[in-house]
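Suppose you are handed a protein chain with no further information: no name, no annotation, nothing but its sequence. What can you learn? This example shows the usual starting point.
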Amino acid sequence: MSENQLSLLSKINEISKECIYMQETGTSNVGSFVTADEILTKIKPKMHELGLLLVPMFHHEQTKVTEVMTKQKSGDKQEYIVSSPLTYKFVCIHSKEEYEVPFYMVGKQGDPAKALGSGLTYAERYFLVNFFNIVSGDKDYDTFIKSNGINLNPADEEQMKEVMELINNPKSETTELAICSNYKVETLTELSTDKVRQIIGLLTKRINEA
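A reasonable first move is to predict its three-dimensional structure. Written in structure tokens, the prediction is:
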């Protein structure tokens, strides 16, 4: 099945695979964070490849603007809180399928337009991080992947079928448990495609020479 034949939810799942972990490079007075620009830069190539659009829908008829006075050292400051429901809509340009996710935004600034802008910016970032379950931290990507033993290139079903057939051949003189122990994994599915290909080569040679 080609990628364009995948269902919309399957395509969204493929996008989520592009952002397993992201380093926090944005900073604020409350800590560090992953910026929306970084996330979009990470996922947009895959979105274009799969023919997906992410459309933010602003419900202006339900928008509320509240004027507040904030106490500061220099005196009271007039600010505005802008809040509104949002909907993020995924659209597949090939099948015309749509998937909507309800969300909400709140922004606070000294100007209503700026409050709206900051609210939309924060909402976009929090939506992307939470919808795609993005793990973030101060480690760089390679360090995080290596330290957590994440397999980014797992063996496919055909490879696993082939390696099991070889293991079950009496001439292989090995077991699944022995191989897992040798490679320090609990199951063969934790091995990368390169490792499984290596095992297939070794077992094939052993069987042919028996």
